[in-house]
Input
Amino acid sequence: MVNTAKNIKVLSEQAVALLKNLIETPSFSKEEANTAVLIAEFFKAKNIPFQQKKNNIWAYNLHFDQAKPTILLNSHHDTVKPNKSWTLDPFKAIVEKGKLYGLGSNDAGGCLVSLIATFCYFFEREDLTYNIAIATTAEEEISGKEGLEIVVPELPDISFAIVGEPTEMQLAVAEKGLLVLDCTAAGKSGHAAREEGDNAIYKALKDISWITQYQFPKVSPTLGPIKMSVTIINAGTQHNVIPDACTFTIDVRVTDQYELEEVITVIQANIQSEVVARSIRLRPSSIAMDHPIVQQGLKLGRAAYGSPTTSDQALLDCPSLKMGPGQSARSHSADEFIYLHEIEEGITQYITMLEGVVTH
Output
């Protein structure tokens, strides 16, 4: 146990050093090449073979056995752009009063380096009943198509995944999917001073009224009801012309009770506007409460909950648990930070939970 504690201490120090380097290397979505280099160099220094596609890097445990099931550890190394409210240099890793400041420190650098450290802990183990894979991926912040989505086909079948996002190491056992629907209400133009035309805005308002009032009947026990929000609306060219088109966008957070296609069908059947989905890639995800990895987390006193936000979990076709050090409220905020103790505690919890699964 003492040796394990020492190993975790060393791994934590290495993880923090890597995170500092990642913070000081800009890696906006689609511009992650330099942080991919840092991660590759980290693996090389530890003699860990890895594979790379675009700005994504993945690796397997040393004694990978095709006959065994595989666990995937995943987090992302891209960041959003810093907002104008930052008072610190977002690309300078600053440690003050136990906090590590910097862009991407919380979302999701702390999770990423903690999972890398966890992978390193198990890398040479010969007593595992599972293989363990690590995937450090790109374009998560923009739900891009050249991140985890292009890595998954390269991987073996995944038994279950742990996706690193800041949850204070609580257990996000379900996550809502996302539909973005672009809608167009069609009317007929005419002069506003005369009884001419067919006002597309009025048609859109009827549809929006339905959207604000309708409730999908099936409610998820972990995620609650589906949530629909109209977030953009545009119509008209000038004050005296009846608009012949009104466009609006619906943000739909879909639960595990519905398929995305089913939700689209219900909406299209109840509104007059044309409905076009931007994609049907970002599906709801979940893991059973009696799954061994969830049970291990519950034994440690962690709470299970349903997450309203979307992550790369949506791209995985396997049971997945979202969990990581840091706090979701800090993500994308000015002067973003993570507590140093959160990283060591995160590594410890990841290892403890996996030990209860991969060695029994």
Summary: The chain has a mean pLDDT of 96.
